[in-house]
């Protein structure tokens, strides 16, 4: 089974690129983030024509997450992260596909920090940590995939000081990520590539794509039973180099 995560940064504006990538690479499951469309405008018919069933959660044209499954329909479990009844931002969706619980998440950016956006980021992270603990305790196979908006270590960013004050690199953000992984989740890319500089995001500013000045902020965390089945992983960097591309590239894993 091939599982991918991709911050599409506007699904309708990049639908043609998405469909071409799906046809070329054929992932079995895709977690999408930053759809930037309202529910009625989610392109379910075009995805169905391409052979993918889908569940999605959208809000007023911002944020938005989805899970696609090839030749089947994902079984929706929840379309919001537990822990806050008044959170109107669509950043989490969870479904069952092929006997695996799949989560697509879009963790808040948190900038500028300090401030209310950073406070919201850390609070959302606490909710994720709590919910992930419950999933782990349930003993089911789980993939937590998405744009975490966290650079876990200095190995996950090009050599620079220009991001020092960014919320993605703050000690609180990194500590929250370590606490999550410390529950027993396995960072798939780091499992297979423990010492390599691997990037999944290149900002549009300052020719960062052209300079390969990237960050690794898109992660697939696996329950330990699935980690034993991990045989391959990678980043489809070429997608980032296309005209009018998202600032992220798809990240994928293959399970036995």
Structure description:
The chain is α+β, with helices and mostly antiparallel strands. It has one domain (2-255): Deoxyribonuclease I, Chain A, CATH 3.60.10. The protein contains six helices and twelve strands. The strands form two sheets. The protein has a six-stranded mixed sheet with strand order 3-4-2-1-12-11. The chain has a six-stranded mixed sheet with strand order 5-6-7-8-10-9. β1 (2-7), α1 and β2 (29-33) form a beta-alpha-beta unit. α3 (116-138) packs parallel to α4. The radius of gyration is 17 Å and the shape is globular. The model has no long low-confidence stretch (mean pLDDT 97).
Low-confidence stretches: none
Helical stretch tally: 6
Shape: globular
Estimate what percentage of residues fall within beta strands. 25-35%
Pairing-aware structural class of the strands and helices? alpha+beta
Helicity, in percent?
10-25%
Calculate the terminal CA-CA distance, rounded to whole Å. Answer: 7 Å
Please identify, by name, the CATH architecture. Answer: 4-Layer Sandwich
| CATH secondary-structure class | Alpha Beta
CATH topology annotation = Deoxyribonuclease I, Chain A
Q: What count of domains describes the coordinates?
A: 1
Order of helices and strands: EHEHEEEEEHEHEHEHEE
User: Number of DSSP strands?
Assistant: 12
Question: What is the CATH superfamily?
Answer: Endonuclease/exonuclease/phosphatase
The side-by-side strand order for the widest beta sheet comes to: 3-4-2-1-12-11
Mean pLDDT: 97
Tell me the radius of gyration: 17 Å
Biggest β-sheet, characterized? 6 strands, mixed
